[in-house]
Amino acid sequence: MFALVLVAALVVARTCGSNNQEISQDEAIEIAKENASFEPCPQLQCVQIRYVPRGIPVRGYWGVVLSETLDSDGEPSRIESFLIDVQTGEAART
User: Fold this and answer.
1) Long-range contacts of 7-16 (CB under 8 A, 24+ apart)
2) How many beta carbons lie within 10 A of that of residue 66, not counting itself?
3) Between vectors from CA 1 to CA 19 and to CA 9, what angle results, nearest 5°?
4) Residue 7 has pLDDT above 70, yes or no
5) Radius of gyration over every alpha carbon of the chain, rounded to an integer in angstroms
6) Contact 28, 4 (CB under 8 A)
7) To the nearest whole number, what is the mean pLDDT of the chain?
8) Which end of the chain, C or N, has fewer beta carbons within 10 A?
């Protein structure tokens, strides 16, 4: 009986906590670029992305940071950051 309750709890936890990621990382980056006030540089360091769970119940966002240029040390300068809703693709500047 205990095993049955444990399995049921596991199934409920998995389905309730599932995250329906409809917007991919690449799509989130493109959405952020469309909303940025500049064109990010082509180097890999000029675009950073991270999955950010927020709220209760948890809702997923892509945190995207874009940089226009890199300084002499290779560090990003003049940045803009966005939260992209994983389900709707809505962008919010942070």
Assistant:
1) 16/57
2) 24
3) 10
4) no
5) 18
6) no
7) 86
8) N
Task: Please count the other Cβ atoms lying within 10 Å of the Cβ belonging to residue 52.
Answer: 14
Q: Alpha-carbon distance 94 to 91, whole Å?
A: 10
- Rounded Cα distance between 18 and 86, Å, is 13
pLDDT at 4 over 90: no
Over range 7-16, report the average pLDDT.
55
Give Cβ neighbours of residue 29 (< 8 Å, ≥ 6 apart).
47, 49, 64
Hey, what CATH class is 21-93 in? Answer: alpha beta
Give the CA dihedral 3, 5, 10, 13, nearest 10 degrees: -170
The SS3 call for residue 69 is strand
